Amino acid sequence: MFSTPFVLSFALLLSLPILFHFGPRIIPPMHLQISLADELDDLALFRRAAIALPRPRSRRPVSRLGTTNPKPKIAFLFLTNTDLHFAPLWDRFFSGHERLYNVYVHADSATQVADHGGDVFSGRFIKARRTERASPTLISAARRLLAAALLDDPLNSYFAVVSQHCIPLHSFQFTYRTLFTPPPIPTESTRKLTQFRYPTSYIEILSGEPQLLDRYNARGENIMLPEIPFDRFRIGSQFFALTRKHALLVIKDRRLWRKFRLPCLNTDSCYPEEHYFPTLLSMQDPNGCTHYTLTRVNWTDSTGGHPHTYCPPEVSPNLIHELRVSNSSYSYLFARKFSPDCLDPLMDLADKVIFRD
Ligand SMILES: *[C@@H]1O[C@H](CO)[C@@H](O)[C@H](O)[C@H]1NC(C)=O
Ligand SMILES: *[C@@H]1O[C@H](CO)[C@@H](O)[C@H](O)[C@H]1NC(C)=O
C-alpha cells in the first residue's frame, strides 16, 4: 500500500514532537532554563514594577516655607551565589549615608547564602532563583533586582549592579557625586566628549569585538532575527549603573527577551547577560548611555571566561590608585574580582586609601 520510504519518513516526522516533548526529560539540559511558571511570575513582577509610582508622595512638611526635598538614592543591586565576603567593607562604605542608598541582594537559591544580621545586607534579600553561567538566568536575576528596587522606593534613581567580588574604589560621597552631578554645559571644543544626555546610564556597549559572531549564533544560526540583526548585536559588562528610565525600559522589554531566553546550542559562546543589556539599550537609547562601565576589571591572562582575581599580596594603596584610572577622563568607581581573603588587607586600606578621595 505505502512505499517503505514514505512510512519511514512519516514515522520520523511523527517522532519529532515526541522527541521534543520527552527529550528534555531523558537527556537533562546542560544548562539551566527558565520554566514557564518562573517566566509568568517574573512577568507579573515586572508589570507591577512598571506601574510603580515614579515620584514619592511628599509626606514630610518641615517648615512653613515648603517641604523637604528628599534626595535621589542609589540602589545597589548585589548579584551573588556565595556569601558577601566584603560586607564589612561595604558597611564602612555606606556608613553615615542611610538616606542616600538602598541595598538589594539576589542570592542564588541553590546555595546557602547567609543573611548575616547587623550589616547593610540584613533583610535586603529579594526572592531569588537559581542562576548559572551560560544560561539566561543571570539576565532574569538582574531584571528581578531592578524590578524589586523600582517597586521598593520611588527615590531610587540609579541602579548599580555589583557582585560579591566587587569592591568600592572611592568613598560614598565621591560615588554619589559622580552619578548625580550633571556634566558642564559643553562648549564647541568639548561637545564631542560630553555628547551624552544627563542623567546618563553607565553601561559598556561595544561592537566589533572578536567572537561576536559566534556569540550571536550561539542559539542557532540567525535565530536572533528579525528582532536583532547582527549589526545591532552588542557586548559589554553586566556590571552597570542604569538610570530609573532605563531600569524601567529593561523590565518592560519583551521583544529582545524572547530571543535571549532561548537556550544556547553552543555553550562555549554563551554569555547572555553580556549581550542582552548593551544590545537593548544601544537599540533604544544610545545617546542616554556612556558606553563605558564604572567597574574596572582586569582581563589580562583571563582563564575560562574569568578575569584576573586579585589575591592578598597584590592588595596595596598603589593597586587602588591604579584601578581607579581609566583611559578617559572618568574614574572607575568599583573593581572586580577580589578573592574573599582580600578582606583584611582591604579593610586596612579602607579609611587611609579607598575612602580618601
Ligand atoms: C592584571 O593582571 C595581571 C595578571 O593576570 C597582572 O600582572 C597585572 O598587574 C594586573 N593589572 C593591574 C592593573 O592590576
Ligand atoms: C588603556 O588602553 C591601553 C592601550 O589600548 C590598554 O592596554 C589598557 O588596558 C587600557 N586601560 C584601561 C584601564 O582600560
TrEMBL record:
Residues 1-21 form the signal peptide. Its main location: membrane. GO terms for molecular function: glycosyltransferase activity. One of its GO terms (cellular component) is membrane. Keywords: Glycoprotein, Glycosyltransferase, Membrane, Signal, Transferase. The keyword Lipid metabolism does not apply. Pfam families: Branch. It is found in: Membrane. It is a single-pass type II membrane protein. The keyword Chloroplast does not apply. InterPro entries: BC10-like, Glyco_trans_14. Coiled coil: none annotated. This is Cell wall protein.
